[in-house]
Amino acid sequence: MWAPPMLLALSLNPPGASAANVEASLLSELSAVARSAPFHVGIRMKIRRGWHIYWKNPGDSGLPPRITWTLPKGFVAGPIEWPIPHRSAENDLMTYGYDRDVILPVRITPPRTLEGDSITIQGKLDWLECADVCVPGSTELRLSLAVSSGPAPPSPDAPALAAARARLPVSPEGWSFSAEAGPRAIALDFVPPKGIAPRGGYLFVDKPLVTEHAAPQGFERTGNGYRLTLLPAANAAGNLARLSGVLVIEDAGHFKNRIGVNLDVPVVPGDPAPAPVKTERPGWPILAYAALLGIAGLGLWIQLYRARRKHSNTNR
């Protein structure tokens, strides 16, 4: 269970607590580095069961992981590439993040000239890990790679990094988006590529003060596409100019898993109506209820059997 964000101010780094619930390390997809040949490294964060870390927009509370790089001369690090997050509702609050092991890819671009036989990539990583309490974590990451005169072979960690990049949201090519905002709702209209028929959707907004994260999002089919609506943030600053984030849909077409799509669209003013909110399915599957009924029935049979035996012994 994710910690209620309201506890952050009260339980952040309490006496005796230590950041020992997330183990961080630095991976490379290549076994060596070549001049002007970009490659990916990965910030691997192994998270202890019952704990979690946060997405780039943590939602109602929290802090995302941050890294300060120390790179060789001429090397450039891109931004963290964030996998599709999960959401967690707690009372009247909503947070976004990861409660399982995660790899955060980062693109590294070497310069045109490389000196020496090896290079070292370093970075100071800071994060917030939470369960019933929240504890700040920090560590120094270090990775040394040989310098290659030609294309470098993949490293043993290449499959893990490839899998992590496969979990990133996709680009919006082939999708059509438009957005409208008013006092009642922020509406995102979209048309997916052919073969994708969403059953539902959720927009992870990547900026603060845009929407009430804990408010249910509406979803409906329109004439030629779909519409998703959000409740505007009560403390939003001015009119919303752009809507950006990751649209996650449950697909009923050719794809079996959820799909995440990056979006960043202009918003036109208006007064869109909220779309219907999809009714949440019960938390327990049908088999669980069947098991409970079976146990109850067995208990009733035992009671009747005991009563029958008692009655039979009394009549002897």
Would you summarize the structure shown here?
By secondary structure, the protein is mostly beta strands. The protein is 13% helix and 41% strand.
What does this protein look like?
With 316 residues, the chain is mainly beta. It folds into three domains: 5-166, Thiol:disulfide interchange protein DsbD, N-terminal domain (Immunoglobulin-like); 176-269, Immunoglobulin-like (Sandwich); 287-316. It contains three helices and 18 strands. The strands form four sheets. It has a seven-stranded mixed β-sheet, with no helix packed on it. The chain has a four-stranded antiparallel β-sheet with strand order 1-3-9-6, with helices on one face. The protein has a four-stranded mixed β-sheet with strand order 2-11-10-5, with no helix packed on it. Strand 7 (86-90) and strand 8 form a beta hairpin. The longest helix is centred in the last third of the chain and has 29 residues, at 286-314. It is globular. The termini are far apart. 30% of the residues are buried.
